[in-house]
Amino acid sequence: MGWMKDETGLEHCAANFVALTPLSHLRRAAHLFPEREALVYHGFRKTYAEYHARVSRLASALAGLGIEPGDVVATLLPNIPAHCEAHFGVPAAGAVLNAINTRLEADTIAYILDHGEARLVLCDPQFLPTLMQATELMERPAPGIIEVADDQAGVHGHGHYMEYEELLATGNPDFEWIMPQDEWESLALNYTSGTTGRPKGVVYHHRGAYLMTMGTVVSWDMRRYPRYLTIVPLFHCNNWNHVWMMPMLGGTTVCCRDITAKAIYDAIADEGVTHFGAAPIVLNTIVNAKGEDRRAFDHIVDVFTAGAPPPAATLAAIEPLGFQVTQVYGLTETYGHVTECLWQEGWNALDDEARYAIKARTGILMPMMEDITAMDPETMAQTPMDGQAQGEIMIRGNSVMKGYLKNPKATQEAFAGGYFHSGDIAVQHPDGYLQIADRAKDIIISGGENISSVEVEGVLMRHPAVLLCAVVARPDEKWGEVPCAFVELKDGASADEPDLIAFARERLAGFKTPKSVVFQELPKTSTGKIQKFELRQIARGL
């Protein structure tokens, strides 16, 4: 031990210990990059000096409305500048941001407003009718409402409530931000997309978000002044924390309200977008864009994809178009992505098929995390790293939630054994790289054999006529369950059930081949995840 036994006078103090918070990034950017473009949305263009002033006005105006530290302020907004401003302005007032999924129905929104005890909601005119229904269903007193008009998109205010710009006008651009005294203070409240029962309220702390922004810069190999397109909804893990990260790099956040191939190509060509995050379904949209929606561009666009393992066929189709795609993985409970498929130079020599198969791996832990591995959830024993044995993905590190709001039992269960239990089933390769086999609830067990729906989907996606597919369990008297495929075909393409079953049969073991194929539009969540629980209900009725 030596002299380390005597640490008298070496306590932390105001000079050497400051609570970590993503708010610091914007404070610094206002001084460092005051004239750089910070926030862009069609004709709306703000520098960092202006962005900081608007955020300060918002924080001040919220305080003026009686919002106190620890209060919850909710949003029902698309990816527009006001939503980015709220990500800084709500916590700068000391409050907790609850960005609500705009695709939810009134009943669930009412539950979230009751459970989170929101004092105020910032709402886009498009979602006001649903919010009105929700407030009528609430048990608690309804929150105040601020209407956020989106004149850029022709979505004008109804005039029933105070409008966002009027609210900002009441605020002081020199307002002193209320910074966290403790980095464990709550920053945001996000509700999981509960497929069973009510959604759970996931609580984020300032520390986790700050470290997420730092780790992402390293993993995404980012340089200063990126131009970033908001495709991931700001209500989805707070846009994977990317909007909080941009000021650190002096980057430009380009807002995108409606996620279409045309909007994405236009943003890349006209705004010079260099980075975005998106679910594989968005990559598919880009690959299959109509000729008139495509634009030429002369730089590589870096993409993080998550939400489901990207089919190798999608990766093979998008990369030649000028996109460099890295698969990442995480959950609402982990602030977004916490693993990355970090590319190894030795893989460059592999043929295309082998390379894209590796790119479809879930990967390894990002720098702000401590350990992410596959374990037996009962014994917490490490799963053999042989690429075959299946275990549950277990996660430890600084970007893990505080827990579930008002639900200590679920929090304890999720953290049993000192790891966050993801509910995702994976194999682990000898090099430690994880590869998701399935959500625990999506595994198909046929005659005692486990079938990964992801594997079957990957094969069907290679068929030239298939645009999208999802594979779920269909009850079967003999085998217990058999795979049933739901398929959307590309415009103008044709294929029938025998075609696709034969195509899969050539590439898969017999027991893994779908026994039935249903052609229909697939139900999707707001982030483009296919809602398998709905498809399972249809499959049960077949």
From TrEMBL:
<dbReference type="InterPro" id="IPR042099">
    <property type="entry name" value="ANL_N_sf"/>
</dbReference>
<dbReference type="InterPro" id="IPR000873">
    <property type="entry name" value="AMP-dep_synth/lig_dom"/>
</dbReference>
<dbReference type="GO" id="GO:0006631">
    <property type="term" value="P:fatty acid metabolic process"/>
</dbReference>
<dbReference type="InterPro" id="IPR025110">
    <property type="entry name" value="AMP-bd_C"/>
</dbReference>
<keyword id="KW-0443">Lipid metabolism</keyword>
<comment type="similarity">
    <text>Belongs to the ATP-dependent AMP-binding enzyme family.</text>
</comment>
<feature type="domain" description="AMP-binding enzyme C-terminal">
    <location>
        <begin position="455"/>
        <end position="529"/>
    </location>
</feature>
<protein>
    <recommendedName>
        <fullName>3-methylmercaptopropionyl-CoA ligase</fullName>
        <ecNumber>6.2.1.44</ecNumber>
    </recommendedName>
</protein>
<comment type="subunit">
    <text>Homodimer.</text>
</comment>
<keyword id="KW-0436">Ligase</keyword>
<dbReference type="InterPro" id="IPR045851">
    <property type="entry name" value="AMP-bd_C_sf"/>
</dbReference>
<keyword id="KW-0460">Magnesium</keyword>
<feature type="domain" description="AMP-dependent synthetase/ligase">
    <location>
        <begin position="27"/>
        <end position="405"/>
    </location>
</feature>
<dbReference type="Pfam" id="PF13193">
    <property type="entry name" value="AMP-binding_C"/>
</dbReference>
<keyword id="KW-0479">Metal-binding</keyword>
<dbReference type="InterPro" id="IPR020845">
    <property type="entry name" value="AMP-binding_CS"/>
</dbReference>
<dbReference type="GO" id="GO:0046872">
    <property type="term" value="F:metal ion binding"/>
</dbReference>
<dbReference type="Pfam" id="PF00501">
    <property type="entry name" value="AMP-binding"/>
</dbReference>
<keyword id="KW-0276">Fatty acid metabolism</keyword>
<dbReference type="GO" id="GO:0016874">
    <property type="term" value="F:ligase activity"/>
</dbReference>
